[in-house]
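Subgroup meeting minutes
Present: P.N., E.W., G.H.
Scribe: E.W.

1. P.N. recapped why we're keeping a running log of single-chain structure predictions: easier to compare across weeks, and new members can see raw inputs and outputs side by side.
2. G.H. added today's entry (158 aa).
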Amino acid sequence: MDKIALYAGSFDPFTNGHYDIVKRAQKIFDKVIVLIAVSPGKKNLFSQEERKSMLDELFINDEQVEVDFWDGLIVDYVKNNNIHAIVRGLRPTGDFEIEFQMASMNRKLEEMAETVFLMTGEKYYYISSSLVKDVYQHGGEIKDFVPELILKKLKERN
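Output recorded in log:
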């Protein structure tokens, strides 16, 4: 039986930090599902469909990665899709408390929802989608923060 992990986030935009977590999760799990989740309070640059299309293209040659989107509770997706673990990246910027609380709630809602924390790579610990979005929207250079494909898609929007 394949060990399947779920890596969920808004991924707007998908950053090199996200990419690093996916690649490292692939060393532990047979399959990683990158799940674009709805964040009702966030103003998005890209629609869910656009983000899915970009990530499908980014991982087109990687059979170990599947991309999907979901607008419900993550634990329901876990339960409905025989997921073995939820992967979360941790940055040394105060993520632990929030991530611990989320993992605890997920485990309470679905006891099979194990969470695996991966420390963000040292090259990426300061990167977040929100910061990248802010830098981009103010005309700053973001080529070091996002995969080349994502940068291309952002530039096509202008």
